[in-house]
């Protein structure tokens, strides 16, 4: 198939195309900074935070490649084209969840909403990455993805600064009985001012996506490509049926086997991390068995129908089998980079509680015990009330300052994202990426030792530069080595490289911090700094093919 010649776009066309990424990243910004503190407000302990964030990697691992493969074979002029229907649906789902999230009455409710929110965000995310590659010629790819990186910074900046600002503007003093002024049935440790950031995020998520959908037409497929799409979809279920069927087939057997195993070995109910690992192992072997059955029995009608339903997953598996060597090297970098990032997002507010505000693990346990006792209808003495109110006030300040810090690094990202384009052209994308990863490592390794809240903004400048590179440069490099006609599925695979390290982190880091890092959030951030350093060293191996090295 002849390569499509794409028209060059001007600044405002590229701007409008990427505006919707602002809303998606506002949502992610709230997840990064506010979700783990909300879990803590609802009674979660440090070693439980990684597993409670399991929704992100699991939904990313499943949803992104499935949506990527389906969108590659989609053309619906009525609903916007190839990619836009998917990130519009994702934005609507995410907006509804953002609105409901701060009303969570219990920890289990908040965790369930996080799963739905992440599914919506991932439905929007992958097609948006492919959308930029669909629209831009090769010589504008770095510019396009760095513009997307700019909106990553802008969306997360506003999300985090809203937390900082609303904490200062609308925080209600808890001293004098405020925390215990409601009935035991209605009391909630989630501050009211947090609600406003989530409401703003819900509006941003749907509003900016609608802007991009309205302002940016998709490039229609050629007659040959359209014929291919129509033939492919003739005997294929609808996208919604495909998605639901894939999720049902993937989850059903592993969950049943996991339940049976836990009944045989009851200790799995007590060690939930180990239980999740067992289910994931079952899932891996189950998918491998399905893949082999479908491939070896192409004439079997039942298996053929199952293969059509699981086509997006099978296509992703086949694409991995012929994946360019560059992507395997990038996967090694991403293993350490994204493991470290997930630690940072989960443990920055807990680190600040300890390093900046002096709250110990014992203080957290005492606070949770007091709140549980109050919810049970017991009378709380004045000393315990005063202690709990002080801890609540300091925890809210830690969350607000985490918002300022995360807002700072994302503001820096917004400023430097486009500046990295000419720098990458001059010295090479790989070198820029390596240096920026080392800057992120320095930021992580210095933060736990800084006890002045304003000096803590200095490492955020380094991290902001690193984040700008992480959000743009690898995608531009990948776009130059993957086949045009499979851009969606390969961008989904790249995002699998992101969520697999996150998945590993959620099931492994809880035991690590509990048993080897003294359950100390400051040690967790130092651990992340070491992993960023390893990622930077591995990134030295990222060499583009010679015919692509001059195209930045």
Automatic annotation (TrEMBL):
Residues of the Major facilitator superfamily (MFS) profile domain: 326-552
Cross-referenced InterPro entries: MFS, MFS_dom, MFS_trans_sf
UniProt topology in membrane: Multi-pass membrane protein
TM stretches of this protein: 12-31, 51-71, 83-101, 149-170, 193-214, 240-260, 272-291, 326-347, 407-424, 431-450, 456-477, 489-513, 525-544
Protein's UniProt keywords contain Zinc: no
Keywords: Membrane, Transmembrane, Transmembrane helix, Transport
One Gene Ontology MF term: transmembrane transporter activity
Record's protein name: Major facilitator superfamily (MFS) profile domain-containing protein
Source organism per UniProt: Aureicoccus marinus
């Amino acid at each position: 198939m002849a390569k499509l010649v794409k028209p060059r776009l001007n600044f405002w066309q590229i701007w409008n195309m990427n505006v919707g990424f602002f809303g998606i990243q506002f949502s992610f910004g709230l997840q990064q900074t506010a979700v783990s503190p909300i879990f803590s407000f609802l009674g979660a302990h440090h070693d439980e935070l990684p597993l409670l964030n399991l929704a992100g990697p699991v939904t990313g691992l499943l949803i992104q490649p499935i949506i990527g493969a389906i969108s590659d074979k989609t053309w619906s002029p009525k609903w916007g084209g190839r990619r836009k229907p998917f990130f519009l649906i994702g934005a609507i789902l995410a907006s509804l969840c953002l609105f409901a999230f701060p009303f969570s009455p219990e920890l289990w409710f908040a965790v369930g909403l996080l799963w739905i929110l992440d599914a919506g965000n991932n439905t929007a995310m992958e097609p948006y990455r492919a959308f930029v590659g669909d629209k831009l010629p090769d010589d504008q790819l770095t510019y396009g993805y760095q513009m997307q990186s700019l909106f990553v910074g802008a969306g997360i900046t506003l999300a985090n600064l809203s937390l900082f600002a609303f904490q200062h503007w609308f925080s209600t003093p808890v001293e004098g009985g405020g925390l215990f002024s409601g009935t035991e049935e209605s009391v909630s440790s989630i501050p009211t001012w947090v609600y406003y950031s989530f409401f703003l995020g819900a509006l941003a998520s749907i509003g900016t996506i609608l802007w991009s959908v309205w302002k940016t037409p998709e490039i229609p497929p050629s007659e040959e490509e359209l014929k291919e799409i129509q033939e492919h979809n003739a005997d294929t279920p609808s996208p919604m049926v495909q998605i639901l069927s894939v999720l049902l087939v993937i989850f059903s057997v592993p969950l049943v086997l996991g339940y049976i195993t836990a009944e045989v070995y009851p200790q799995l109910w007590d060690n939930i991390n180990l239980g999740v690992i067992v289910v994931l192992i079952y899932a891996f072997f189950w998918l491998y068995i399905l893949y082999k059955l479908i491939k070896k029995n192409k004439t079997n009608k039942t298996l053929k129908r199952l293969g059509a339903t699981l086509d997006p997953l099978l296509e992703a598996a086949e694409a991995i089998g012929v994946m360019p060597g560059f992507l395997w090297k990038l996967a090694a970098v991403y293993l350490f980079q994204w493991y470290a990032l997930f630690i940072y997002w989960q443990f920055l507010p807990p680190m600040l509680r300890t390093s900046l505000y002096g709250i110990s693990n014992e203080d957290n346990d005492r606070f949770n015990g007091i709140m549980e006792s109050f919810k049970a209808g017991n009378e709380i003495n004045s000393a315990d009330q005063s202690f709990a109110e002080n801890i609540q006030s300091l925890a809210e300040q830690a969350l607000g300052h985490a918002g300022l810090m995360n807002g700072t690094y994302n503001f820096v990202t917004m400023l430097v994202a486009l500046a990295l384009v000419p720098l990458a052209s001059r010295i090479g994308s790989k070198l820029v990426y390596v240096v920026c990863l080392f800057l992120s490592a320095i930021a992580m390794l210095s933060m736990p030792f800084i006890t002045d809240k304003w000096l803590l903004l200095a490492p955020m400048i380094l991290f902001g530069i690193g984040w700008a590179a992480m959000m743009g440069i690898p995608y531009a490099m990948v776009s130059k080595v993957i086949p045009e006609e499979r851009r969606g599925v390969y961008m989904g695979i790249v995002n699998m490289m992101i969520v697999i390290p996150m998945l590993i982190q959620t099931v492994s880091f809880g035991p690590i911090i509990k048993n080897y890092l003294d359950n100390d959030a400051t040690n967790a951030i130092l651990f992340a700094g070491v992993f960023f350093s390893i990622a930077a060293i591995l990134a030295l191996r990222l060499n583009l093919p010679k015919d692509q090295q001059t195209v930045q």
